[in-house]
Amino acid sequence: MRKEPSNKVYDVLRWFGLLPIAVLAAWLAWIAVNILGRFSLGSVGVTPDDFIGKLYFMTAGHAAIGIAFVYVGAKIAPVRRVIVAFILGGTGIVVSGFLLFPALMVRDWWAVWGGLFVAVGAGAVVWAVHVGEIDLE
């Protein structure tokens, strides 16, 4: 339940900005994971072209995309944040599934792996909201 008074114009702007800000947050999360990964893996001699480097970037970076998309989008919503988290989680999983098709057609197995982890990240946030580990209110 919201405790502060409602400002209708502000609420409408939050609803309109929800999807673009969620997509921007997902992109920024991917960039942040890649920058941090380059520093942390580079200090132990792992380059982004090594198998371990690619595995890290494709797993952690793409999972961060799904996590940030759902969490930030749900926090932007002015009301009904849990329902918004479920909708965004479903949207992220469906879009990830649609993007797996072109990756399979060109046989880019790293893109398939990344697409699966976008869905895993989005699903993990939805699950955490469902069981009460993440409180969105």
UniProtKB/TrEMBL annotation:
Keyword Transmembrane helix: yes
Entry superkingdom: Bacteria
Lineage: Bacteria, Pseudomonadati, Pseudomonadota, Gammaproteobacteria, Methylococcales
Keywords of this entry: Membrane, Transmembrane, Transmembrane helix
Annotated protein name in UniProt: Lipoprotein
Organism this protein belongs to: Methylococcus capsulatus
Residue ranges crossing the lipid bilayer per the database entry: 12-35, 55-74, 81-104, 110-129
